[in-house]
Design brief:
about 350 residues; alpha+beta; Molybdopterin biosynthesis moea protein, domain 2; Aldehyde Oxidoreductase, domain 3; Molybdenum Cofactor Biosythetic Enzyme, Chain A; four-stranded antiparallel beta sheet; 11 helices; about 30% strand
Length: about 350
């Protein structure tokens, strides 16, 4: 930091706020700390009595906070997002489309561990809508060594830390199991719930079957939907371990790869997730337990966005739901702005 004549300050960085007071009109900040003095700023500075200023000396290898913020944006932003204007070393990332937010968590941790810089984001693997704020970045000090920003680029790697997988246009087939539904003994209250949730992602239902508890027919109905072009098949009910619950076995009989039968999530512990290879297509098959029919939020709400974005879900990711997998059934549901699934 050094003191220089105001007329000589062009291109230098202010070390303190400059206050302007106009009687009965204004009292506030004229220029903020970190502002780079421009030629047109000189008259205004002199008008508030600032004939001398304390400024940072521009040295080789030292970056202003706004220059360094550009680096944070560069390593953070992927496709389908844009940055806000830079202000005081800060840039925000804004979504340009609807989709699922993906985060390279290892890279995020490495950058935040360097010190003097930060990136704060919302949770990954959750839906994001166009216009949503994804993350905020900031350089902590007024100036920072260029070599530190070079290190940030190095630890972040070649891929951006954040990316968005846009939702795909899909159509679903629903296989409603249970002899009680097939025989008309009870009203099907499961399918309306599924349709409502699918509508959130503009996913039409191409058809519904009611094979009862016939294991072979359940398998046939699933395969028939796939043959007809379904991008997603949902089997509702029949997911417990009772002898007459045939859905898990029927899904297995399709030849699909079972990712998991069971999830550390309440409600939704009896989830089954599988993927069926149909030539070059991969079709998700979901076996949903009865809780999806009556609980406000369940495991279905955690995995559906990823299914709709063609984001493959691994068994270890399902296992990781154990922490945060307990829905508290709050009187006023604020999901996804809560801890469920996080």
């Amino acid at each position: 930091m050094k003191e220089i004549r105001t007329q000589d300050a062009v291109g230098h960085i202010l070390c303190h706020d400059i206050t302007q007071i106009i009687k009965d009109q204004k009292k506030g900040v004229l220029f903020k700390k970190g502002h780079i003095v421009r030629e047109e700023d000189i008259p205004a500075l002199l008008s508030v009595g600032k004939e001398h200023l304390f400024v940072w000396e521009k040295k080789e290898g030292i970056l202003h906070e706004n220059e360094a913020a550009e680096t944070l944006y560069k390593i953070s932003a992927g496709e389908h997002m844009h940055g806000s204007d830079i202000k005081e070393g800060k840039i925000e990332l804004i979504a340009d489309c609807d989709g699922v937010l993906k985060i390279r968590r290892d890279a995020l941790l490495k950058v935040n561990s360097l010190g003097e810089m930060m990136i704060a984001s919302r949770h990954g693997d959750f839906p994001i809508r166009k216009g949503d704020k994804i993350a905020g970045t900031r350089i902590i000090p007024l100036v920072i060594e260029k070599k530190k920003m070079d290190r940030a680029e190095e630890v972040a790697g070649e891929e951006p830390i954040f990316s968005i997988l846009p939702f795909k246009n899909k159509k679903a087939g629903i296989v409603t199991t249970g002899s009680e539904v097939k025989n008309g003994l009870i009203k099907d209250t499961f399918t309306p719930v599924l349709k409502d949730k699918l509508e959130e992602y503009a996913c039409p239902v191409m058809g519904q079957t009611t094979p009862g508890d016939d294991r072979k027919q359940i398998t046939a109905d699933i395969l028939n939907f796939i043959k007809e072009g379904a991008d997603l098949v949902i089997c509702s009910g029949g997911m417990s371990v009772d002898p007459d619950d045939r859905t898990p076995g029927a899904i297995k009989d399709t030849g699909a790869d079972i990712v998991t039968y069971g999830a550390p999530v309440l409600p939704g512990a009896m989830l089954l997730l599988a993927y069926y290879k149909d030539g070059e297509r991969t079709v998700p098959i979901l076996g949903l337990p009865g809780c999806v029919m009556y609980a406000k939020r369940t495991v279905f709400d955690l995995i559906l966005p990823r299914v709709m974005a063609d984001d493959p879900i691994r068994a270890e990711e399902i296992a990781a739901y154990g922490e945060g997998g307990l829905c508290l059934n709050c009187a006023s549901c604020t999901f996804p702005n809560c801890g469920f699934g996080k």
